[in-house]
Design brief:
InterPro entries: Bact_OuterMem_StrucFunc, OMP_bac, OmpA-like, OmpA-like_sf
Pfam families: OmpA
Subcellular location: Cell outer membrane
Helix content: 40-55%
Order of helices and strands: HHHEHEHEEHHH
Keywords: Cell outer membrane, Membrane
Structural class: alpha+beta
CATH superfamily of the largest domain: OmpA-like domain
Largest sheet: 4 strands, mixed
Protein name: Outer membrane protein OmpA
Strand content: 5-15%
Number of helices: 8
CATH architecture of the largest domain: 2-Layer Sandwich
Length: 218
Amino acid sequence: MYKLIAFSGLVALTACSESMVRNSSFWREAGILHNDADFGNATMNNIQIQNGEKSYIVGLSQRFAREVTSMVNFEFNSAALDENARAILRRQADWIRQFPEVRFRVYGHTDKVGSNAYNKRLGMRRAQAVVGYLSTLGITRNRLEAVVSFGETQPLVVTEGRERRNRRTVTEVSGFIGRHPTVMDGKYAEIIYREYVQSATARTGLSGIQGADLATDQ
């Protein structure tokens, strides 16, 4: 009887010890416990925060949406750009040219009339039309992506019928150009400072060296 109790206690103690080892890194090398599904994501996030990449992209995305009309609309069953759409895209291009290191993505959308497969193709054609027009305004193709089409799945107005507001594209900041020299060297502060000087120069209404000197004094 005493042997059985002693054996049971030993089993319980062993199980407890194994549980401690399994659930704690105290007895094992540092970092042994991790989530395989997103291992490395925390490190990547920390690096992006420390070098300014992530916070700058988030801020730039918010600024783009605030300062420029990011959406253009289309006629029913059409990917043609009307004059109003082209005017909006010209303003987008003016804004985009300020940031040669930054990539942009164009999302295509449709209303719910028609099959999902057809609408997805139509949404992609609309995104490609926007990318094509922006490229004629001096924005290089390697900075523009038309790779995602939400088709009819993300309406602004929930309706089964025709709705112009749902027939749209949306242009968004998507990240940095990885091979750009400034980005490769991690010089995100230079990008921020250059944009700051340019914005100050624009406020003074001056240009050239005089404007730049005044901007840096502010």
